[in-house]
């Protein structure tokens, strides 16, 4: 499958496609824990494939785990049994520690397990694209430096942050090249921290580096999907300037505004609330919200229905079914 052909087909066809960022229900279908999946490529792949068999997503996705790359650099990570891992403390704090920070190999920490999950899934799912995941450079810098500290350092010591961002980007290019070699069709790059700064700063401290990754790996066989759930509408331009073939928005933004501000040849994806709607609402509310979003966005051919971020563990199955039922009914009416 040529991913660029799939992208153009998605834009051309009348029927809407849906790609929710969703893996946790697959873990539960396999009777495993989150800790099992994020530490074993085999379990992770089984969960992705089990979910793919259960629901009609246009493309299965891996877990949005924003600790894999930070852990590879040496950050301390904790692994709750039933939640995604988290970084416990910053790894670097000043010029000396940034200068001494080594760019890790791809054999470090859990990177091999995530590459295995991608490879096994790509081998088993042949009838649709498979999308891997990685963190974005600015968000990775935030994990390594501390997000609050990073916000201050942008103005106090920007030259040190630039060095850190360059190291993050060099690793992410290596990682995304390895992801590409597994046979998946693209990577969802999660860059939520860039939504915490202005569009101008996002262009400088995020887009500059995201674009380097895009230019290194994106082609007719592989695309970058840039995700920024922190963008409330103020830094859409910075996302567009990345050159990523698809842009994925969180539930903070008005989806019609996002579509109006994106080129028609890019896929624009989003943005149902993964927690407030999928986890905390009734199936009737999920159905109504999904149908409303589809109706509001029907003028744009490049829209792909999705969640605003990764769906958390323990989502009621009837809510997932309501999401897809709304999609089916909408497509029948087109």
UniProtKB/TrEMBL annotation:
GO terms for molecular function: methyltransferase activity; uroporphyrinogen decarboxylase activity. CDD domains: URO-D_like (cd03465). Keywords: Methyltransferase, Transferase. Residues 29-328 form the Uroporphyrinogen decarboxylase (URO-D) domain. The keyword Cell division does not apply. GO terms for biological process: methylation; porphyrin-containing compound biosynthetic process. Signal peptide: none annotated. Pfam families: URO-D. InterPro entries: Methanogen_methyltrans, UROD/MetE-like_sf, Uroporphyrinogen_deCOase. It comes from the Bacteria. This is Methylcobamide:CoM methyltransferase.
């Amino acid at each position: 499958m040529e991913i660029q052909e799939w992208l153009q087909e998605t834009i051309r066809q009348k029927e809407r496609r849906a790609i929710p960022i969703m893996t946790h229900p697959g873990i539960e279908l396999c009777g495993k824990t989150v800790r099992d999946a994020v530490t074993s490529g085999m379990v992770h792949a089984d969960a992705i494939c089990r979910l793919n068999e259960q629901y009609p997503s246009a493309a299965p996705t891996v877990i949005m785990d924003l600790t894999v790359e930070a852990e590879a650099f040496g950050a301390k990570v904790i692994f709750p049994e039933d939640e995604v891992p988290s970084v416990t403390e910053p790894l670097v704090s000043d010029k000396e520690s940034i200068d001494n920070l080594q760019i890790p190999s791809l054999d470090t920490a859990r990177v091999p397990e995530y590459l295995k999950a991608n490879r096994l899934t790509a081998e088993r799912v042949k009838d649709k694209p498979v999308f891997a995941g990685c963190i974005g450079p600015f968000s990775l810098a935030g994990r390594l430096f501390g997000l609050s500290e990073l916000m201050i350092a942008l103005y106090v010591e920007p030259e040190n942050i630039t060095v850190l961002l360059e190291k993050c980007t060099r690793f992410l290019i290596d990682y995304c090249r390895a992801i590409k070699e597994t046979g998946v069709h693209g990577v969802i790059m999660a860059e939520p921290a860039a939504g915490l700064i202005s569009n101008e700063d996002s262009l400088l401290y995020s887009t500059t580096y995201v674009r380097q990754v895009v230019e290194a790996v994106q082609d007719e066989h592989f695309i970058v999907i840039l995700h920024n759930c922190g963008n409330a509408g103020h830094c859409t331009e910075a996302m567009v300037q990345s050159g990523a073939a698809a842009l994925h928005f969180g539930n903070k933004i008005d989806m019609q505004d996002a579509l109006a501000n994106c080129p028609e040849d890019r896929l624009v994806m989003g943005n149902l609330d993964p927690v407030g709607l999928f986890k905390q609402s009734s199936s009737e509310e999920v159905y109504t919200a999904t149908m409303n979003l589809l109706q509001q966005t029907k003028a744009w051919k490049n829209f792909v229905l999705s969640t605003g971020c990764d769906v958390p563990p323990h989502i009621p199955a009837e809510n997932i079914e309501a999401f897809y039922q709304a999609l089916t009914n909408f497509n029948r009416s087109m």
